[in-house]
Amino acid sequence: MATLPRIFETYDVARPARPVAANPGGGNALRALPQEDVFFFCKKIDNSRLVREADPKATRASWNIIGAACVAVAAFGMVMAAQVAGTMEGYKLEALRSEEQRLLDERRSLDLQEAQLLSPERLEKLAKGQNLVTPSPNQVFHLETRPDGTVAMVKK
Fold this sequence. Notes:
Elements: H1 4-11, H2 56-117, H3 120-129
């Protein structure tokens, strides 16, 4: 409101302009600082005798805010739990895929090793090394099969 009279001065044409006061200091005087006349005093206030009055509405509002925050945290936790579970299952799936690939490679190497061990050339070489020969036709005995499924009888 301090500027309101100045506004009216600009629109007031009937009043003559204010004369500029001569500067007694010779032209080097400083202008007045804004709010130079305002002083702040610090007064010591003692509120130790005051007792805070309980507000039942504030207590209810506080519990409502706490409840809403708990519901929000639980909802956020469920959403994040689903995200984390999905991420963990993805890691497990990739680990199982890599294990499957490792097992398939191991199976291929074992099949190759088995084929090398069971090759006829190797078996003949082992048989010659242990002096094994092909049996003659009179050394081969064929067992008779019985109708009840037994092959041979045990003699007592």
